[in-house]
Amino acid sequence: MSHTETEIASQPDCWRRAIELARDPDGPVREALPRPGERVAVVGCGTSWFIAQAYAALREAGGQGETDAFPASEMPTGRAYDRVLALSRSGTTTEVLELLGRIRGGARTTVITAVPGSPVTGLADEAVVLDFADERSVVQTRWATSELALLRAHLGHELEGLIEDGAAALAAPLPDGLAEAGQFTFLGRGWTYGVAQEAALKMREAAGAWTEAYPVMEYRHGPISVTGPRSVVWWLGEGPSGLAEKEVTGPGGRLVGYGRDPLAELVLVQRLAVAIAAARGLDPDRPRNLTRSVILG
């Protein structure tokens, strides 16, 4: 079993620990993370940027305050924020370190990382360390979902169903025919658009698959043109998508979505990415041209 497969299977246990950490009234997390009413920028790179998008949408929709998400390299430093929340698994990503150094002494900064004592913790005012969710694989799976579980719990979401859905997504057989698909379009709405972006990234990184991601209502505005035989259109949202099945099946595609919590649905995507990688003779632990952390010279 690859490191990626082991880490995918460990997710419900990691989520439980992250949720407990977020809900501990005496723990460090409650004070370190954004407080209601703060104007917040959330930054990250790659997977962390997509998790930032999901959290920003959740926080603002929940009435907690204005929340923007940026790639760390693209945050407009002229805007006024009460807090900048940086997400970095390794704590060594160059763009995150440069941003935190540039804004030091301004907005309050918090970092969520998997590595205690990593360089990013020395540049932030406060750090939340999820070392139990760190990974050996280059491809991020449990780290991404665990930090989003932590952030959702901090916002007050009830997540008991997430643990059950995650266990079900691990136990379920992969649906017939998905591994043979040639093209995937992942769709979300609101916070789940960030999850859809992460799903597409996992398929690209681990399996080298042709994948795209869009807000669900954007599907008709161009993305429908790539749907055809051997295409899968995957709804990663909560409730009905609003998309007519004939808009997918008419061009020859297949519409899927299994009604689980979107993070648990992402587990199924991760498993599928590993299966496709194996079928193509690829190593999901060491995807082509990628490293665990991007450190620029």
UniProtKB/TrEMBL annotation:
InterPro entries: GlmS/AgaS_SIS, GlmS/FrlB_SIS, SIS_dom, SIS_dom_sf. The keyword Repeat applies. The keyword Isomerase applies. Keywords: Isomerase, Repeat. One of its GO terms (biological process) is carbohydrate derivative metabolic process. Residues 29-167 form the SIS domain. One of its GO terms (molecular function) is carbohydrate derivative binding. This is Putative SIS (Sugar ISomerase) domain protein. It comes from Streptomyces himastatinicus ATCC 53653.
